[in-house]
Amino acid sequence: MAGEEAAAAAGGAAAEGREAGSGGGYDGKCVFCRIARREEPGTALLPCQYEDLVCFRDIRPGAPHHYLVVPVEHMGNCKTLKTEHIPIVKRMMEVGKAVLQRNNFSDLNDIRMGFHWPPFCSISHLHLHVLAPASQLGFLSRLIYRINSYWFITAEQLIERLQTENAAS
């Protein structure tokens, strides 16, 4: 959340949340849409194995390694996702793990990956926080990225929630 607020301040108004299933596209008011299209020269994109995702460092890191994985196409926040979005969430996790390994972080048992749950996200463009080592999160980061809180959901919890929605349908 901290990095999102700074990104919103640096990039102007945050996007007005489009629904995840509304076709995506581009929102010029969304700083993450602009970053994904290399329109924000101050943000370096990191290598990513998927063309429809981008990865970059959070501008207000909560851990020694803090990256954001973002779809290139504008998608709403994690609360707008449906069962058909499980594959993109899984690929976002793959990208997060790969960027950690490329940056010489190999203890994948000491990471935190997840999303801020609305209304506790300041940028309404789907983005996965990748933090490592989780054991070195500072006091505020432990609160902001707290597991089992009202404001943060791990990627695994989100997938489980989406699978449960499908089973109930």
Description:
- By secondary structure, the chain is of the alpha+beta class.
- Helices cover 31% and strands 16% of the residues.
- A six-stranded antiparallel β-sheet has the order 1-2-3-5-4-6.
- A hairpin with a 6-residue loop joins strand 1 (45-46) and strand 2 (53-57).
- Helix 3 (86-102) packs antiparallel against helix 5 (155-168).
- The longest helix is centred in the middle third of the chain and has 17 residues, at 86-102.
- The protein is globular and about 40 Å long.
- Mean pLDDT is 87; it is low at 1-23.
Average pLDDT number: 87
How many helices in DSSP terms? Answer: 5
Strand content: 15-25%
Distance between the termini: 32 Å
Order of helices and strands: HHEEEHEEHEH
Query: What's the overall geometry?
Result: globular
Strand order of the largest sheet: 1-2-3-5-4-6
Q: Helix/strand/pairing class, anyone?
A: alpha+beta
Please give the share of residues in helix: 25-40%
Gyration radius (Cα, Å) is: 15 Å
Parts with pLDDT < 50 across at least 5 consecutive residues: 1-23
Largest sheet: 6 strands, antiparallel
**How many β-strand stretches?**
6
Structure, briefly:
The chain has helices spanning 2-11, 31-36, 86-102, 139-144, 155-168; strands at 45-46, 53-57, 65-71, 112-116, 128-132, 152-154.
How is the secondary structure organized here?
Elements: H1 2-11, H2 31-36, E1 45-46, E2 53-57, E3 65-71, H3 86-102, E4 112-116, E5 128-132, H4 139-144, E6 152-154, H5 155-168
Antiparallel strand pairs: 1-2, 2-3, 3-5, 4-5, 4-6
Helix pairs in contact: 3-5
